[in-house]
Amino acid sequence: MERGYSIKTKPIYGTLVWQENATHHFLVVAGEGGKALLKLFQQMVPKQATTIFYLAEDDASKKYADTVQKMTGETITICDSLESLLDSVKTALENCYMGTQFYVAGEEGLIWPVAKTLSEFGVDDRNVFKEQTGSLARRVFCVHCETINENVHHDIHQCGTCGLNLIVRDHFSRHWGAYMGFMVDGETPGEIPAAQEVYP
Ligand SMILES: [Zn+2]
């Protein structure tokens, strides 16, 4: 990458910090995002109500949820799939009011589906803190067959749907919640550079 060169659409993630003027805190985390949740509660236990959803696809990734529950007595809703998590989030959003602050921590495969769900419910993206944790794997949108490839670790990725070899760009679409992938051998068919693992 060129020095001093950046792409405006590329998301920049921060570190979760309590918004103390919020009336309600709504947190959604997955896997290693649990560590961000734990750090938040080590800062303080807010006086406002919290709603916490935790995606734990296996028992090992539940450890942070257990620690936070023991430490604070907060209730954490644990879900075992992204679909059930998003359904639970939607149900809880029905009872959210102005002044709710949202916090999301996990891999991009969690952050962007949650952000999309929140925006469908009219949540302003500025009220959604995002912390990227765990793997840097990208979600890649194949511009040729318009499907999403999850968990992409390499700069060249064969689309799981149409089979084209895609070069993964830094251009990020908030609509798709994914980076754009373009056919790498458009000009010289069959000439595919070696893939490097750049999103470990
Ligand atoms: Zn494709």
Describe the model.
By secondary structure, the protein is α/β, with parallel strands linked by helices. The chain has 2 domains: 24-132, Nucleotide-binding domain of ferredoxin-NADP reductase (FNR) module (Rossmann fold), CATH 3.40.50.80; 135-200, no CATH class. It contains 4 helices and 10 strands. The chain has helices spanning 33-43, 63-72, 82-93, 108-120, and strands spanning 24-30, 49-55, 76-79, 100-106, 128-132, 138-142, 147-152, 156-158, 165-173, 178-183. The strands form 2 sheets. Strands 3-2-1-4-5 form a 5-stranded parallel beta sheet. A 5-stranded mixed beta sheet has the order 7-6-10-9-8, with helices on one face. Strand 2 (49-55), helix 2 (63-72) and strand 3 (76-79) form a beta-alpha-beta unit. The relative contact order is 0.15. The site of zinc ion (ZN) has 8 residues, from loops.
In short:
By secondary structure, the chain is an alpha/beta fold. It has helices at residues 33-43, 63-72, 82-93, 108-120; strands spanning 24-30, 49-55, 76-79, 100-106, 128-132, 138-142, 147-152, 156-158, 165-173, 178-183.
